[in-house]
Amino acid sequence: MSDKDHTDLHKELSTVFEQAIKKRSITMGMNAAEHNEHALLKRHHKSVSIQAEHAYRQTYSTRVADETKRLLRKDGSKTRELKPTAGVVDRFNGNKLRLQAEKNVRGHHKIDMANLREAELKDEDTLFARVEKRNGIRGEAKRAFNRSTDRRSGLDRRQRTRER
């Protein structure tokens, strides 16, 4: 799969999820202020992720160089193991070290982006929980009103019916 196919798929999935979120928010009964807050929240998190991606691209070579130095320090440190050195071939491979550093840098970036996405989902869940709580209070008031205005006879009223 090429990068172009990957980005097209990503855009398509993003669009589908955005539509699903809008549908969920409509069904949850969000008011205009909550819709605006949700849109502001999405814009904020999108700009933060764009900034993080931009910073990653701008500092990629520096990050790889720093990671290479870290790996060299770690691999080159003295160990307390006593091994005979006669006939041992030096296994140092600079290209392999650079590839490992690049892999580590990409892995750290993926973790950072996943943490940003997790923070976005946490903020959305907080907003949705607040909306559900507000709607739940309205629903509870409606159920209490229906119970108090129940016009059935005494015995029939004591039998529980399914709430509407």
Explain the layout of strands and helices.
Blueprint: H1 3-28, H2 32-58, H3 60-76, H4 94-148, H5 154-158
Helix pairs in contact: 2-4, 3-4
Report on the structure:
The structure is a single chain. α2 (32-58) runs antiparallel to α4 (94-148) and α3 packs across α4 (94-148). This protein starts with a helix and ends in a 6-residue tail after the last helix. The chain is elongated, with a radius of gyration of 29 Å. It has 164 residues and is mainly α. It has five helices and no strands. 79% of the residues lie in helices and 0% in strands. The chain has helices at residues 3-28, 32-58, 60-76, 94-148, 154-158.
What is this entry, summarized?
By secondary structure, the chain is mostly helical. It contains five helices and no strands.
Mean pLDDT: 80
Number of strands: 0
Biggest sheet features: none
Measured between the Cα atoms of the first and last residue, the distance is 50 Å
**Strand fraction band?**
under 5%
Low-confidence stretches: none
Form type: elongated
- Estimate percent helicity: over 70%
Structural class: mainly alpha
Q: Which H/E pattern describes the elements?
A: HHHHH
Rg of Cα set: 29 Å
The number of helices is 5
Descriptive tags:
164 residues, mainly alpha, 5 helices
